[in-house]
Amino acid sequence: MSLTLIGAVTIFALTYIAIISERVHRTVAALVGATLLILLGILEQEHAIEGIDFNTLGLLIGMMVVVNIAKGSGMFQYVAFWAARVTKGKPVPLFLFLGVIVALFSAFLDNVTTVLLMVPVMFVLANNLKISVKPLLIGAILLSNIGGTATLIGDPPNILVGSASGLTFNDFLIHLAPISIVVSAVTLGLLFLIYRKKLITTPEAQANILKFDPKHAITDKRLLIKSLIVLGVILAGFITHNMTGLEGATIAMGGAALLLLMTMNHPEEYLEKVEWGTIFFFIGLFIVVAGLEEVGVIHMAAESLLRLTEGNPVMMGMLIVWGSAIFSAIIDNIPFVATMIPLIQDIGAISGIALAPLWWALLVGADLGGNATLVGASANVVVSGMAEKEDQKISFVEYLKIALPLTFVGVAIGSVYLYLRYFMFM
Asked: Angle 356-157-319 (CA atoms, 0-180°, nearest 5)?
């Protein structure tokens, strides 16, 4: 093993330990790790910058600006009180109803946009019902990633694979939506068993929240209309991504610019509200992972994973599912999927094996496996950042205790689905 390889692995391990221990703020830990890689000559600055996924960052920043502007219309309070009225203010039905909304929105908006829209709603509801918001937030993370599995635009790894493979929006809907629906239902059921005794409110709080008329929550109808128009344009941009060739960052940043222009608001106020700690955490994390890529660690791990299959399609598919789930939980599913794409393409070129089942195996593992830890997917990091800003910090271990077993169940269901639908007769 070379010194650069040992150095990259050591820095990655220490960075991850610091994030888990929470003795150092995760953003600081990630940035320090990224800086050390460059200072020690393991990664050149140019390569470090190339390792940053600016499409993801642009998507996050653009949607954060749009959401921060839209908040002023009262639309989130409207959704909150409408959901409360539909469920008669009962915390458990409300929890389940919000889970369904998150999963559905994630499929057609993308998971990051969905949590940016829904987390403020959850804080409003939890505060009024006087219940802990953490079950709602953890449920939002899990169901946003599961729901996002269903479509081409639901999760960033799906967009990466769609671009590389030529698979269409309808392909994703046909092949991944069924497993997304099943795993969403099972996860909601398990979350109900875990949290049903904690989601208890007082009759007074329940009665008080029902007094609110959702219509009265709208404070600025013009801003609401403008916000809905821009959100519609952004959604159309995501859906037509394959036809227009526009990346998520361009669509989201364009939507932010359009809404700023339509409202004639000064950008400083909304830029200040962007979760910059989360953005810089991603920057540091992307660079730390780029260090592993630079010395060949991820490539070697992926090759070893594929070599074990000895050309057996069934074993190959199952190893890709579980390997993707494990690695995505540790290093974030976006860089892992980006690394796996050329390897899967090479498998097809060499062996002649049909690639579509392998793409689905990669995405089921990466999308669902990203649920296991707070750094496994973009939505996880965004929600934990928003929670910390509201003094409702979700610790790494606290989240892991709930998410890891539910992720295992989800990936196991996904494996059975893939085997029965694609690999059983190969």
From this structure: 55
Q: Could you identify the residue written with the tokens 């802990």?
A: 132
- Token readout for 386 is 């928003």
Q: Compute the distance between CA of residue 26 and CA of residue 305 in angstroms, rounded to an integer.
A: 30
Rounded distance between C-alpha atoms, residue 399 and residue 410, angstroms:
16
Tokens representing 40? 């020690």
Q: Closest by alpha carbon to 234, among 117, 345, 359?
A: 117
Q: Which long-range contacts (CB under 8 A, 24 or more apart) does 386-389 make?
A: 386/115, 386/116, 386/119, 386/275, 387/119, 387/133, 387/134, 387/137, 388/277, 389/275
Of the candidates 304, 298, 303, 284, the one whose C-alpha atom is nearest the C-alpha of residue 333 is 298
> pLDDT tens-digit profile of 37-81?
999 999 999 999 998 888 888 888 988 898 889 888 888 778 888
Six token digits for residue 149 = 């599995």
Residues 6+ apart with CB under 8 A from 223: 69, 70, 72, 73, 263
SS3 74: coil
pLDDT digits (tens, 9 = 90+) for 11-42: 988 988 888 777 888 889 989 999 999 999 99
Kindly list the domain boundaries of the chain, sorted by start residue. Answer: 3-50, 54-423
Are 372 and 325 spatial neighbours (Cβ–Cβ below 8 Å)?
Answer: yes
Reduce the DSSP state of residue 348 to 3 states and report it. Answer: helix
Question: Quick one: residue 131, left, alpha or beta (phi over 0 = left, psi -120 to 50 = alpha)?
Answer: beta
Tokens of 249: 């960052």
pLDDT at site 407: 97
- CA angle, corner 183, sides to 180 and 185, nearest 5? 105
pTM above 0.70, yes or no: yes
Amino acid identity for residue 69 in this structure: I
